[in-house]
Amino acid sequence: MSRELVIVAAKQDSQGNYIRPQRASETPDEIAFYPENGEPNVVKLSGYGPGDTIPNGKYYVTFYDPTTKSFLGQFMSVSGYTIPGIPKPKNIKVVSTTSGATVTAEG
């Protein structure tokens, strides 16, 4: 049996709470991050920038057998963390007003 560590993104309920994945209902399509080549027990999450915060329970880690395409064992929550660095404003929008402007941005 082959075994590698994988990360699955949790679904959310109607209140926005993260739901622990269940082995019986998850499919390989749910895998968000795979291990590094040659390192079956190391997975690197990517796609985030400085200042981004990843909350507790957004991701779950488990072992996966790529030969049988099945999950092994329990899904365990990945602890939340913040990417170091200074966030930069994104999607800046300026709307003129009679006395100046309203500026909004995402960060």
Task: Explain what you see.
- This protein is an all-beta fold.
- The protein has one domain.
- It is built from no helices and 12 strands.
- The chain has strands spanning 4-9, 11-12, 18-19, 31-33, 35-36, 39-43, 53-54, 59-65, 70-77, 81-82, 90-97, 100-106.
- It has a 4-stranded antiparallel β-sheet with strand order 4-1-8-9, with no helix packed on it.
- It is elongated, with a radius of gyration of 19 Å.
- The model has no long low-confidence stretch (mean pLDDT 93).
Largest sheet: 4 strands, antiparallel
Number of strands: 12
As a percent range, the share of strand residues is over 45%
N-to-C CA distance: 44 Å
Order of helices and strands: EEEEEEEEEEEE
> Level of helix content?
under 10%
- Helix-strand makeup class: mainly beta
Strand order of the largest sheet: 4-1-8-9
**Count the helices. How many?**
0
Overall tally of structural domains: 1
Uncertain parts: none
- Rg on CA atoms, Å: 19 Å
Shape: elongated
Mean pLDDT: 93
